[in-house]
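Its record is set out here:
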Amino acid sequence: MSDSETRPTPRSISGSSRPDHLAGANPTDGAGYDAILVVGFGGPEKPADVMPFLENVLRGRNVPRERMLEVAAHYDHFDGVSPINSQMRALIAALQGELDSHGPHLPIYWGNRNWHPMLEETLRQMTADGVRHALAYVASGYSSYSGCRQYREDILRARQAVGAAAPTVDKIRVFYNHPRFIAASAAKLRSRLADVPVELAGKLPVVFTAHSIPASMSRGCAYEQQLRETCRLTAEAAGIAADQWRLVYQSRSGRPEDPWLSPDILDEIRDLAKSAALGLVIMPVGFLSDHMEVMYDLDYEALHLCQELGLKYYRAETVGTHPEFVTMIRELIEERVSGTPERLAIGCFPANHDVCPEDCCLPPQRPAARVAAGA
């Protein structure tokens, strides 16, 4: 289940929808952070969790139950368990080791939007522990309503539920063009390319995938631009020629008449088969961990289609807990804690802003309840 498919109708928060009323909009000069808050999407950890999890994501919105049951069936292919929480635990353990070794020496708390540990539960614990000002790492590397602004809105709702004593929470910037993110992505891609037989080396297209979002959402953010820059930089770092890679999307849902970003990965595979391609290498660069959405859309649907069409299929891993990625998170924390003006970035665009401007990552014009496979 994905953020973009289950987003709530945009509404005023505490009487205002201006960004300076959202969590993360008023960072300090670097002093005073006393904790790190890792924010994830959350996912079921046993079969009995699946339907309660889906209901939690939907939060009473008008999605037919048969659609929920259809999505719930996706989990049956993986024993009813999403790996996203276990992957988040592994990332937190790696990050804690980084902070312990290099600083800043801050405790890490973890809260999810849609499954335990829930954000509100975590913020209550932080409040009880005396945390006053936290810096949040959100498990999303790109700018969009569902990947940035909606997380900040959820943090604020959790803070409001806890009350006036809840810690303030700032958010670190998106990192699509951070050199260490590119290095980790390229390393994962090169590792999979090494598995391609010699007779196919250099002959298979590299297909980068990312979560599709509604076109109306895309118009309000830099999501497509950032994705293409990440793909370009990753391909260059992995030694992939400019005419050998392309960006496609996955996980599209909603009404057929609503335009979403395309082409879809399954359509791309069919087109490759028609062009007599021998196979493809897939890199889910728009995702940070191999969670349920990646596994179902790629390792089940895309794989089975490739087998049906006689195409070779090679799928690279997401960055996960790659050392370069973990070090990047620590450095993003350090740049905010220290207040240094230096912001690392490579490629055609500067480092993204710390404070989101008012018109940043606007919600789609026609919000609607949607559900798909996700965490």
Q: What stands out?
A: The chain has two domains: 3-175+322-338, 179-315. The longest strand covers residues 35-40.
